[in-house]
Design brief:
This protein has one domain: 434 Repressor (Amino-terminal Domain) (Orthogonal Bundle). Helices cover 57% and strands 0% of the residues. It has 6 helices and no strands. The longest helix has 10 residues, at 13-22. The mean pLDDT is 94.
């Protein structure tokens, strides 16, 4: 959540509002989620990653369970 908060803080107020709108949420919701370390839903995590241009990733937002939600992000080892 620290990366999301830092990203939001790097934006102007207008840019924060535009970013949140593109993610289909509000700045208030994002800031509250950061402040209470709330687990953000998968759909919103994907939108945040997309709209931040990868500055804040799904792995950043869901460090404990991203591999369960998005198993395709795991690096697969080739069978020997």
């Amino acid at each position: 959540m620290d990366k999301l908060l830092a990203y939001l803080n790097s934006l102007s107020r207008d840019d924060q509002d535009a970013f949140a709108k593109r993610c289909d949420t509000s700045v208030g919701y994002l800031r509250k989620a950061c402040s209470i370390n709330q687990r953000i839903g998968a759909e919103l995590c994907s939108a945040i990653e997309r709209e931040s241009g990868g500055a804040v990733t799904r792995k950043d937002l869901r460090p404990r369970d991203w591999m369960l939600v998005w198993p395709e992000l795991q690096k697969h080892k080739k069978a020997a």
